[in-house]
Specification:
single chain; alpha+beta; five-stranded antiparallel β-sheet; 24 helices
């Protein structure tokens, strides 16, 4: 007895929303167009971070306009509307960049051209123009970022573009979107080995990806060759990586990690600058001697592009560095330079001796430059320096100033008050708050005023060890300034006034000395800040793993330069240039071929597998099956051949049973027995 169906009229039925109604009535042309719009949006999204805001808004509104036209079934705008809009957009690009040439204006014009082209698709050819324009614009992502995250997002976008391209090829029933996505992914994977081969073997071109001058070199931050109040504290908020270090020997203690960069010897009352002393080709300059104690520490530094010419070295690093493709110079203040600005990642190895003494000539003429001060500034600091001079002992003067910083209420802060004309006086006697550049500048000023040669050294201090890959990460927030003073026979000695006020900065990190605070209104995220500073927390674990992955990407992919390519190909040629390697490759190829045949055999239907084996068997007897020959026609020809009668009977029964299994009504119950009988007849036909 059948149960009565419920009365559908009594059930509440939700009225379909307008959007769902449009989707339900969507034709194939509309669905294909929306898929193309989605792919174009994926191409444009990464560029919104660096293009002018009006460009991103215009492109987004244009895509939304095109989607509305598609869903509502309206006509595309005529040319007399599109042409003025395009001209106005190009004028906007010119007003934004003051040129139409270069990386940024070129990418902006391509983004707008892609958006406007979507409003001007009238033929099938226009679809391909849009797709290939998307591929070209997608390539420009690497002009701004070459990280592994950028590469992964580009792969996903390529799969989406291939899906749209595959969709246009169907003339009948279109497979589901999931199936088309899988097909596009397979196409991408088939092309990936060729891309990998080209990456490894195609000659590498030295130089930046984008070769035009100007804007390709922009966006670099880091330590400069000048220092004024606030110049280093502005870097403290940056988590950008300055360089990474891999140690081959035991790592020095945290308070020994002083990465020397630029030495500042000239002071005009406000800003410290370099002295402009001559540069030397290699080795120690004349008049300098280094006394090294203890074993050297071998390490490798990978510097990020900075746009500057100076290198950062662990004090004290041997000056005879060797970097292929770079012309190195050094100064008598132990600075290391390259002759061309660093616009690419640079890797170099060095050997440092943390326990050292730097000496030189003690003549007044030699050290006069490091005692000079501009007249008419900081009268109270000069009075304090007079009392230091009365001590008649440089070491006692150093201890007195450091004791002043420790005992009096000085503060280490990223947001010190602004200083006026007599900056040193205001810092020492009024605000008593500053960052490392304030303490280093005031200390060197007092030392010079007391007649003691002194200078400011800028660079980085410390670093964070990544326990995942063992690299030390030095960030822009580790930027630091310290002092060097001349102590007679002891030569130049490093003195870090910041350590007297905030020892946690040198012993641990900046985050320990000045804990980060969440932005105003987000005080509830203070716990996340604490988790980030805790090296054992899950957030730090994620951060360390992400840094390790990005570092591996940099080391093995982005740093695959011409020299590394030559070395790799030479090693590969040596490894494959003997009979053992050739035999091993042949064996691997044979195993891969056998595995492929085995997998193909496993995936084949047993009925088809038996029939193919039968055809191969007959072909070996000189009776191959024709390409257009079915089982019955093949059986008739075999029965007419000169063969034993028992073999003919087995062949006839085999082909009749194969035809029934292949083309007859399937019988799930007796199929297994029939397949066994088919294989038995195959054996009898031999």
């Amino acid at each position: 007895m059948k149960s009565a169906a419920p009365d559908s009229s009594a059930l509440p039925v939700a009225a379909p929303t307008p959007v769902l109604g449009l989707v339900a009535r969507m034709t194939r042309d509309k669905a294909d167009t929306l898929l193309l719009l989605l792919a174009a949006l994926m191409v444009l999204l990464p560029h919104f971070a660096h293009l002018p805001l009006w460009t991103s808004i215009t492109a987004t509104l244009t895509l939304a306009w095109r989607a509305a036209i598609t869903l509502l079934g309206r006509r595309l705008p005529p040319l007399w509307i599109l042409l003025p809009v395009s001209v106005l957009a190009m004028g906007g690009v010119y007003l934004s960049f003051r040129t139409l040439l270069g990386r940024d204006p070129g990418v902006a014009m391509l983004a707008l051209l892609l958006a406007f082209k979507l409003l001007e698709m009238h033929a099938r050819r226009d679809l391909y123009v849009v797709v290939f324009l998307c591929f070209f614009l997608l390539l420009t992502d690497f002009f701004y970022s070459q990280s592994i995250f950028t590469a992964l997002t580009m792969m996903a976008t390529i799969v989406m573009l291939l899906t749209a391209l595959v969709t246009f090829q169907y003339t009948g029933i279109v497979p589901p979107l999931k199936q088309r996505l899988l097909m596009a992914a397979r196409i991408f994977l088939v092309a990936a080995p060729l891309g990998l081969l080209l990456f490894v073997a195609f000659p590498r071109i030295q130089g930046p990806l984008w070769g035009l001058p100007g804007d390709a070199r922009s966006g670099r931050t880091g330590i400069s060759d000048t220092m004024a109040p606030g110049s280093l504290s502005s870097l403290a908020a940056s988590d950008d990586i300055a360089f990474r270090v891999r140690f081959f020997d035991p790592r020095p203690r945290q308070n020994q990690l002083y990465w020397r960069g630029v030495v500042l010897s000239n002071y005009d009352g406000r800003t410290w600058t370099r002295s402009g002393r001559p540069l030397y080709r290699g080795g120690l300059p004349a008049g300098l001697s280094i006394h090294l104690r203890g074993p050297g520490i071998r390490h490798e530094i990978t510097m990020e592009p900075s746009g500057k010419r100076f290198l950062f070295t662990l004090e004290f690093t041997e000056p005879d560095l060797s970097i292929p493709g770079q012309r190195l110079r050094s100064s008598d203040e132990l600075e290391s330079y390259v002759m061309e600005p660093l616009h690419e990642r640079l890797r170099y190895r060095a050997k440092a001796y943390p326990d050292f003494s730097l000496q030189g000539e003690a003549s007044p003429a030699r050290t006069a430059q490091w005692r000079q001060l501009p007249p008419g500034f900081n009268p109270r600091a000069l009075e304090l320096a007079a009392s230091l001079r009365a001590l008649d002992d440089p070491q006692a003067a150093v201890r007195a100033v450091l004791r002043k910083f420790r005992s009096e209420p000085y503060r280490y802060t990223l947001t010190p008050p602004a200083l006026g004309r007599d900056a040193v006086d205001e810092f020492l006697f009024a605000s008593r708050a500053g960052f490392c550049e304030h303490y280093a500048s005031a200390f060197v000023y007092l030392m010079r005023a007391a007649g003691i040669p002194a200078r400011v050294v800028t660079g980085y201090q410390g670093g964070e060890l990544n326990p995942v890959d063992g690299y030390l990460i030095v960030r822009q927030s580790d930027a630091h300034a310290w002092a060097e003073v001349w102590l007679g026979e002891q030569g130049w000695q490093r003195v870090d006034p910041t350590a007297a006020v905030a020892p946690q900065r040198v012993e641990q990190s900046l985050a320990r000395a000045i804990p980060a605070e969440p932005p105003f209104g987000l005080e509830g995220l203070a716990g996340l800040v604490d988790l980030q500073n805790d090296s054992a927390s899950w957030l730090s674990w994620l951060r360390f793993n992400a840094n390790a992955i990005n570092n591996s990407w940099n080391q093995w992919v982005l740093d695959y330069n011409p020299e590394r390519q030559r070395n790799f190909l030479a090693e590969l040629n040596f490894a494959l240039g003997n009979w053992r390697s050739a035999l091993g490759l042949a064996l691997v190829a044979l195993l891969l071929f056998a595995a492929q045949r085995l997998r193909a055999g496993r995936g084949l239907d047993p009925v088809d597998a038996a029939y193919q084996a039968f055809c191969r068997q007959m072909a070996r007897r000189g009776l191959p099956r024709a390409a257009d020959e079915g089982p019955r026609s093949y059986a008739a020809r075999l029965l007419a051949a000169a063969l034993p009668e028992d073999k003919k009977a087995a062949m006839k029964e085999f082909l009749e049973l194969y035809g029934a299994l292949k083309y007859g009504v399937p019988d799930s119950g007796g199929r297994t027995h029939s397949v066994k009988r088919l294989n038995t007849l195959l054996m009898q036909s031999r």
